[in-house]
Amino acid sequence: MFSWMGRQAGGRERSGGMDAVQTVTGGLRSLYQRKVLPLEEAYRFHEFHSPALEDADFENKPMILLVGQYSTGKTTFIRYLLEQDFPGMRIGPEPTTDSFIAVMYGETEGSTPGNALVVDPKKPFRKLSRFGNAFLNRFMCSQLPNQVLKSISIIDSPGILSGEKQRISRGYDFCQVLQWFAERVDRIILLFDAHKLDISDEFSEAIKAFRGQDDKIRVVLNKADQVDTQQLMRVYGALMWSLGKVINTPEVLRVYIGSFWAQPLQNTDNRRLFEAEAQDLFRDIQSLPQKAAVRKLNDLIKRARLAKVHAYIISYLKKEMPNMFGKENKKRELIYRLPEIYVQLQREYQISAGDFPEVKGMQEQLENYDFTKFHSLKPKLIEAVDNMLTNKISSLMGLISQEEMNMPTQMVQGGAFDGTTEGPFNQGYGEGAKEGADEEEWVVAKDKPVYDELFYTLSPINGKISGVNAKKEMVTSKLPNSVLGKIWKLADCDCDGMLDEEEFALAKHLIKIKLDGYELPNSLPPHLVPPSHRKSLPKAD
C-alpha cells in the first residue's frame, strides 16, 4: 500500500471530503512521478506524444471542451449554463469566437491573456507555451464568481471553418491544441446546428484528433426547435451518418437534442423531448466532479500503456541500427517498415493493436530523429510501470471507491442547473405517477365514472371483482405480464387478492400511466392511495 494512504483515516476526521480528494490526487501524482515519468523521459515520450503532467493537471477541476463549427451555439451554450455573461464573450451569426477561452472560477471578474496564463503554476495550461505566440495571442482565461464554475471549468474553442485557407491562417496547429485539451478534459462536447450538419475538412481533422478519447465525447444537436418533428428525424439520421464517416467506432455516440439557450422555443411539438434530453445532459455534466478522480486514473492508465508501447518502439529502432555504415538507409527502411514492426511488437509483448500510436503520424515524426541516439530497452523502467498497472492501480481504485462512499455527493450547482431541480419545472413534475401530488382531490376521480362502468360489467361480488375477472380486462392493454403483475400489486391495497371499484380504477389509471410512456412507481405514492384505503394503509417510509 502507498505511504500516503496511511494518513487517510486521520485526515478524513480533520478535514473530511477535501482531504480525501487531496489524498487521491496525491496518490495519482506520486504514481506518475515515480513510475511513469522516468519511462517517458528515457524515451522522449514528451517530444512525440504529450508534455509531462504537472501538479495542476492532477489538482484542477473537471473541464469541459466545446467544439463545433461557427454559429452552432458554443458560446451561447456556456452563457446558458452560467446564466450570465463572461469576459471575452462574443455571440453572433458570423464567426465571432476566434480564441480559446478557458472560463473558470474567480473571486473577481476579469481575464488573463495567454502569455501570462501559461506561466501561472496554479493553472493547468503551462505546457501550452510550446504552441508559440500565434496560439497564445488567441488564448485567454475568463474568470468570474459563478456558482457553476466552483465545480467545473469550460473551454470555449474557435468556430471551425471549412477550406484550406482558414486552416493555414490560424498560425498554429489547431488540431494539436485540441488534442492537448482532449487528453486533459473530462468531457468533450461536439455541437451541431440543425441547419448545419456538414462536417468540414477541418472539423473532420479536429474530431480525429480526439482518437483514444471516445469515452469523453458527447454530441449536442442544437437549435432543434427550428425544425418540425419530421424534419428533426431526417436531421438526426443525417447527423449520425455524417459522424459515422468520421468516428470509426461501432458504438453509437450519445446525441442530446434540444435548444440550449434561454429563449422561447420556435417549435413546441417536441418540448417534452427537449426537456428530457436537457435533463440527461445536465445529469451527465453534474456527475463530472464525482467522477473526476476515476477519469484522472483512467487517463493515467492510458498514458502509462502508451508510454510502454513507445519505449518498445524506440528501443527496437535503436537495436536495429548499424554501428558504423548505412545508418541513413537503415533509418529509411525502418520508418517504411514501421507497420510491420508494430505487428512484430504486438506478438512479442502481447500488446493490443489499439495501444499503438497512429502509424502515419509516428513515421512523420521519426524523420526528424537520429535513431542511434535513442536508448536501448531498460527492463527496470518497464517493470515499474507493469507493477503500477498490476498492483498499485487496484489499490488506488479501492481507495477512490472508499472515498466516494464517505464523501458527500458532489454535484454541479448554480446557473441553469438550479432551474430544473426543484419546483413545478423539475422534469416529470405533475406527470405520470406524480400527477395530482399537490391536489386535494384524488387524481383518479376524474376518470372514475368511466372505470366504474367497466367494473360493473366484470361481475363484482360483494363490491369486489376476482383476480380472474380483473385479468380479463387488464390484458386488453397488451402490456406484458411482468408489468401487469406490478400494477396488480400496487392496486391491491389491502392485499386480499380482489379489487374493489376504487382499486380497479387505480389499476386502470396505472395502466394509462404506463401506456403514456411513464415509469411505474416502486411503491404507491400517498396521493394515489384510494380514499377508502388511506386510513388502513401503512405509511410509506
UniProtKB/TrEMBL annotation:
<keyword id="KW-1003">Cell membrane</keyword>
<protein>
    <recommendedName>
        <fullName>EH domain-containing protein 4</fullName>
    </recommendedName>
</protein>
<keyword id="KW-0479">Metal-binding</keyword>
<dbReference type="InterPro" id="IPR040990">
    <property type="entry name" value="DUF5600"/>
</dbReference>
<dbReference type="InterPro" id="IPR011992">
    <property type="entry name" value="EF-hand-dom_pair"/>
</dbReference>
<dbReference type="GO" id="GO:0005509">
    <property type="term" value="F:calcium ion binding"/>
</dbReference>
<dbReference type="Pfam" id="PF12763">
    <property type="entry name" value="EH"/>
</dbReference>
<dbReference type="InterPro" id="IPR027417">
    <property type="entry name" value="P-loop_NTPase"/>
</dbReference>
<keyword id="KW-0597">Phosphoprotein</keyword>
<keyword id="KW-0106">Calcium</keyword>
<dbReference type="GO" id="GO:0005525">
    <property type="term" value="F:GTP binding"/>
</dbReference>
<keyword id="KW-0472">Membrane</keyword>
<dbReference type="GO" id="GO:0005886">
    <property type="term" value="C:plasma membrane"/>
</dbReference>
<dbReference type="GO" id="GO:0048471">
    <property type="term" value="C:perinuclear region of cytoplasm"/>
</dbReference>
<feature type="domain" description="EF-hand">
    <location>
        <begin position="479"/>
        <end position="514"/>
    </location>
</feature>
<dbReference type="InterPro" id="IPR031692">
    <property type="entry name" value="EHD_N"/>
</dbReference>
<dbReference type="InterPro" id="IPR002048">
    <property type="entry name" value="EF_hand_dom"/>
</dbReference>
<feature type="domain" description="Dynamin-type G">
    <location>
        <begin position="58"/>
        <end position="289"/>
    </location>
</feature>
<dbReference type="InterPro" id="IPR030381">
    <property type="entry name" value="G_DYNAMIN_dom"/>
</dbReference>
<keyword id="KW-0967">Endosome</keyword>
<feature type="domain" description="EH">
    <location>
        <begin position="447"/>
        <end position="535"/>
    </location>
</feature>
<dbReference type="GO" id="GO:0055038">
    <property type="term" value="C:recycling endosome membrane"/>
</dbReference>
<feature type="region of interest" description="Disordered">
    <location>
        <begin position="1"/>
        <end position="20"/>
    </location>
</feature>
<dbReference type="Pfam" id="PF16880">
    <property type="entry name" value="EHD_N"/>
</dbReference>
<dbReference type="InterPro" id="IPR018247">
    <property type="entry name" value="EF_Hand_1_Ca_BS"/>
</dbReference>
<keyword id="KW-0547">Nucleotide-binding</keyword>
<keyword id="KW-0067">ATP-binding</keyword>
<dbReference type="Pfam" id="PF00350">
    <property type="entry name" value="Dynamin_N"/>
</dbReference>
<dbReference type="GO" id="GO:0005524">
    <property type="term" value="F:ATP binding"/>
</dbReference>
<dbReference type="Pfam" id="PF18150">
    <property type="entry name" value="DUF5600"/>
</dbReference>
<dbReference type="InterPro" id="IPR045063">
    <property type="entry name" value="Dynamin_N"/>
</dbReference>
<dbReference type="InterPro" id="IPR000261">
    <property type="entry name" value="EH_dom"/>
</dbReference>
